[in-house]
Automatic annotation (TrEMBL):
Gene this protein is translated from: arsC
Domain Phosphotyrosine protein phosphatase I: 89-214
CDD domains per the UniProt record, alphabetical: LMWP_ArsC
UniProt name for this protein: Arsenate reductase
InterPro entries (UniProt xref): Phosphatase-like_N, Ptyr_pPase, Ptyr_pPase_sf
The keyword NAD is assigned to this record: no
Record key words, sorted: Arsenical resistance
Length: 222
């Protein structure tokens, strides 16, 4: 297979968006050319674009979101197919909108585990933006989650996870036989003010620290 840029027709896209997608494809092909062929990379990029196209509030950001999500999915697929064997524990945090609880859990896990473990997050019904109160609450403890965005879960992401932590998505959460699941019963911060979100944030921190200890991942003392 060649590593040519994506050539799939892109209707209803501006010239700038089409160019941004071609640039994203080139970057992904450069980073994953030793792991996947162009066809797989192209399929993941465009299906990722489609995931956000119907609910994006800022269309110009769509190619960037698609690239970031495609990158995450390709990394997950590499783990599923045994092309990455670093032995790092991999955790997936799931809630309904991927806007509050799962984003705070991801923020804490990534902040505390550093490069010693892998974590992703997703939602059964992804929202349009991360909860501003959750962002503010995390900023108070020195963790910046402004770069995150609500996204769905996909089969390869669930399959790549060693542990799936669910937070209120109920029957909508994906179930794969043989996968370890754990339900964290937490209040939903959606529509709540900062004072209400703070105790939810603190409970999430406690749970993440316990999980890291169980996984024997050294957490930085904060």
């Amino acid at each position: 297979m060649t590593n040519s840029p994506v050539t799939r027709p892109t209707r209803d896209l501006s010239i700038d968006q089409q160019q941004a997608l071609r640039t994203a494809a080139t970057r992904l092909q450069t980073d994953f050319r030793d792991t996947f062929g162009t066809e797989t990379i192209e399929r993941f990029l465009h299906s990722s674009y489609d995931e956000f196209a119907g609910r994006a509030t800022v269309p110009n950001f769509l190619p960037l979101l698609a690239e970031r999500f495609a990158r995450q999915r390709l990394k997950a697929l590499a783990r599923v197919e045994g092309k990455v064997t670093d032995g790092k524990p991999t955790v997936l945090f799931l809630c309904t909108h991927n806007a509050g609880r799962s984003q705070m859990a991801l923020g804490y896990f990534t902040h505390l585990a550093g490069d010693n473990a892998v974590a992703w997050s997703g939602g059964s019904e992804p929202g349009n933006e991360v909860n501003p109160a959750a962002i503010e609450a995390m900023a108070e403890v020195g963790i910046d989650i402004t770069g995150e965005f609500p996204k769905p879960w996909t089969d390869e992401i669930v399959q790549a996870a060693d542990i799936v932590i669910t937070m209120g998505c109920g029957d909508a959460c994906p179930i794969f036989p043989g996968k370890r699941y754990e339900e964290w019963t937490l209040a939903d911060p959606a529509g709540q003010d900062l004072d209400t979100v703070r105790p939810i944030r603190d409970e999430i921190e406690e749970r993440v620290r316990r999980l890291l200890a169980e996984l024997d991942v050294t957490a930085e003392v904060r």
